[in-house]
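for the writeup, i need someone to sanity check this before i put it in the appendix. the sequnce is what the collaborator sent (i think, or maybe the updated version? ugh). structure was predicted straight from it, no edits. if anything looks off just tell me and ill rerun, i have time this weekend
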Amino acid sequence: MKRAVLPLAAVLLVAAGPAGAADPAAGQAKSAICATCHGKNGLGTAPNYPNLAGQKSQYMAQQLKLFRSGERKSEQMNIIAQPLSDQDIDNLAAYYESLPPAGS
């Protein structure tokens, strides 16, 4: 029985997620600059600004990292994403995913 304890503990640690798991509250705090274009509630303030509310976090994180690296081009977003850390990006993505999407 003692041998089963270690593998079970490893499974529980993996299931709990990484130590630096995304924090939607930290993402909300970081989102002030995003609100100018994407709205306080994640709904774009103009037709050319996409809604972020309800966006899948994995997709959003990937796009922010592409903007940050310059692989995805947008004069505004490349500048805004540049100073974001990976943790900032994960937190922002988790925050916007937690918001109800447009029309909900």
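The two ends are 50 Å apart (CA to CA). The longest helix spans residues 2-16.
thx in advance!!
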